[in-house]
Amino acid sequence: MATEKDIEQFSVQCENIFTQVARDVIGQKEVVEGTIIAMIAGGNVLLEGVPGVGKTRLVRTLGRVFDLPFKRIQFTPDLMPADVTGTNIIVKGEDGNSKFQFQPGPIFSSIILADEINRATPKTQSALLEAMQEHTVTVMGESRKLSEPFFVLATQNPIEQDGTYPLPEAQMDRFMFKLIVPDPSVDELMDIVSLTQKTMEEVADCACTGEELLRMRATANQIPVAQDVLKYTMILTSATHPISEVSTATAKQYIRVGASPRAGQALISAGKVKALIKGRFNVAYSDIEELAYPVLRHRIKLNFEAIAEGLTADDVIKKVLEEVSKKYR
Q: How far apart are CA 36 and CA 20, in angstroms?
């Protein structure tokens, strides 16, 4: 069980992390908080936004703030799986005989920026599946462990779809959050331009080491969840299915495929971190409801009726939340 000292230390470290990130990233409070929550909870993040809104800068800043090795993989149609995972190459030993030697790929790092992930072919995208879930990489039948902590932070452009390959459900499900990176406001844009006119160098310092991050995760895992909140979370997850004992009217009308059990796991894990950030020692209904959008928006598939009416995943999630909250809270 986490002690008061553990929780106090968690709060101090979170404050330091947010302070350092804010030195390099202007605005985007929800995106920054969501990414940090996912990293503490041990999840991967999909960042969706148009070019130039600071997705890559945020990921690079987090690498410095957490003092973790960072690698960027630019996904393109000609990128091969071996370019991501690594491959065996033939080398000559001291005895003159040839042998295979493993050449690690960029996946062997702690923070992976998968830039424009939907531009690579499904074959290459699938090279990330094992790494994202099991934190291992298998090359020619041999499995290799990745370093801990390990995160995949991927980006994609929602506008330009020519030459892209939509991520399959299996891969989307491995992202804890899908975060929408908004355009900056006028005031934020002025701050961004002022900052970059002074210097292009990033100034954020380390606020938390990898070992400290793992300790923060262990502290969060010990936060209790009341049975009522746990049941509410599982009902919310099941309520996104059009055919379920707790299906809502909205789900039956607008959802083709509901969220998987990973959604329930993500809501609880992230809810514990969010509760600690807010200074609470228990997960509240409000934590789950706030996290429902980033956890569910990429896991539910809308049907033709929803698309024809111009509804987004967030619109449908909002309606499902209202129905579940009214009936089960």
A: 12
Residue 328 φ/ψ, nearest 5 degrees: -115, -5
CA separation for the pair 63, 54 (Å, rounded) = 14
> Which H or E run contains 304?
helix 304-308
**Cα 82–83–85 angle (5° rounding)?**
55
Decide which of 3.30.1310.20, 3.40.190.10, 3.40.980.10, 3.40.50.300 is the CATH code for 4-74+110-117+142-216.
3.40.50.300
pLDDT at 11: 86
CA distance 25 to 53: 10
Q: Check if CATH label 3.40.50.2000 holds for domain 223-328.
A: no
Taking the C-alpha atoms of residue 14 and residue 47, their distance in angstroms, rounded to an integer, is 21
Element (H, E) at 66: none
CB 254 within 8 A of CB 239: no
Q: Where are the alpha helices (DSSP H) in 180-284?
A: 186-198, 210-221, 227-238, 249-254, 261-277
Q: Which tens digit of pLDDT belongs to each residue from 49-104?
A: 888 778 888 888 898 899 898 899 999 999 999 999 988 888 877 777 777 778 88
Examine residue 149 and say whether the peptide bond preceding it is cis (omega within 30 degrees of 0). yes
Tell me how far the alpha carbon of residue 307 is from its chain's centroid: 25
